[in-house]
Write a structure and sequence with these properties.
Elements: H1 2-17, E1 20-21, E2 29-30, H2 34-40, H3 43-75, H4 80-88, H5 95-106, H6 111-118, H7 127-130, H8 132-156, H9 161-169, H10 174-185, H11 187-202, H12 206-212, H13 226-232, H14 244-268
Antiparallel strand pairs: 1-2
């Protein structure tokens, strides 16, 4: 009952509203598939959808590569629990606070520029002017990395140590240990974590909004993802448009695309379970 009220009800309502023109207060006017046809020609939505996919795919690959790398390094390190806590720390901090900190690092004459100047690089790039979305993606990887390091490390800790000892006796390289022991025996966890990242990437909002926007204005449309596009067409900006029907259509398209991706991902990562 609670699930139906809190999830299914709003989801069904969004689908119905997506076929209307509604400002959230007055009577909803049925418009058929006009909202969806408008989306097909909306370059802002195209950019937002592309950015969502970049975060999902590019950010996801970066998160899992770095998480596996850190897991393998921390596995053999003394004090790994302390280091793991430090890596996990950004996960428990508000994305708004992390976005403000990220801004201090990459603003003009900020920590990054100062660091580069100290090593002799005087003409540093215009981070926020020319590479804003790239900096946002890197920031998202940083803020989510600790969670996936913790998940993967918990899975790696379940692998019996004698398997690695036998690999060492056989002269296996670090890559071979990862390829033939670590990855196959943690595959179920990796698959579940990939789905978790896919769903989580759809809900990213606060970090981009706080990092790219101001107190009164939203971030530039070039860095919008689907969540910001929906907000921008409802309550966002100095003069909100309250286009709930149009925003609902964008939400429906994005959710369907991500659901299709999740199904493909689950099929691609399906493996027979390995007992050890």
């Amino acid at each position: 009952m609670v699930y139906a009220v809190l999830f299914l009800g709003p989801a069904i309502a969004s689908v119905v509203i997506s076929f209307t023109r509604w400002d959230g207060i007055g009577t909803a006017e049925p418009v058929g598939i006009d909202n969806y046809l408008t989306l097909m020609g909306d370059t802002v939505f195209h950019t937002a959808f592309k950015n969502t996919m970049v975060v999902l795919l590019g950010g996801g690959i970066a998160v899992f590569v770095l998480a596996f790398g850190l897991t393998m390094v921390l596995r053999e390190m003394r004090g790994r629990k302390f280091v793991r806590s430090v890596v996990f720390f950004p996960t428990i901090i508000s994305p708004v606070v992390l976005a403000i900190l990220w801004g201090f690092i990459f603003q003009a004459n900020g920590l990054m520029d100062t660091g580069l100047d100290q090593i002799g690089i005087a003409n540093s790039p215009n981070w926020l002017g020319d590479h804003l979305f790239l900096i946002i993606v890197i920031g998202l990887v940083w803020t989510h990395l600790g969670l996936y390091v913790t998940i993967l490390m918990a899975a790696v800790d379940q692998i019996p140590r004698y398997l690695y000892e036998e690999c060492a006796l056989a002269g296996a390289t670090a890559w071979q240990r990862f390829r033939y022991v670590t990855l196959p025996l943690t595959w179920d966890v990796v698959s579940a974590a990939a789905v978790l990242w896919t769903i989580g990437s759809l809900k990213i909002f606060e970090f981009i909004y706080a990092f790219g926007g101001t107190t009164a204005d939203m971030p530039p449309t070039s860095v919008w993802n689907s969540a910001l596009f929906i907000y921008g067409n409802t309550f966002g900006g100095r003069t909100p448009s309250f286009s709930f029907g149009y925003a609902s259509a964008a939400a429906v398209v994005t959710v369907i695309a991500v659901m299709a991706f999740v199904v493909l991902l689950r099929r691609a990562t399906r493996r027979d379970p390995i007992e050890f």
